[in-house]
Specification:
Shape: elongated
Radius of gyration: 21 Å
Number of helices: 2
Oligomer: single chain
Helix content: 25-40%
Number of strands: 2
Length: about 80
């Protein structure tokens, strides 16, 4: 699919409806432009909340605040480097 759009004097583009529908874009979604030698690729940024539950959490870490997990991990790595 190739669909055109016109840039405004402020550098803004309206993403055509066909493209929004194809990418599942909605108001507030973020997109990335990957610049290539002869053009650019527009992709929808992943919603990391969609990944929730995709990584198993060991039972001993369930319900533990993320900040504490990070601190303990940093301490363990520092002691491993000794």
């Amino acid at each position: 699919m190739q669909v055109g759009a016109t840039m405004t004097t402020k550098g803004q583009l309206t993403v055509p409806k066909e493209v929004r529908e194809a990418l599942g874009l909605e108001a507030g979604d973020r997109v990335y432009f990957t610049v290539r030698e002869h053009g650019a690729i527009l992709t929808k940024a992943p919603d990391f909340l969609d990944l929730a539950g995709s990584v198993p959490v060991p039972p001993e870490l369930r319900g533990v605040p993320w900040r504490r997990v990070r601190q303990e991990t940093w301490r363990a790595r520092a002691s491993d480097r000794g």
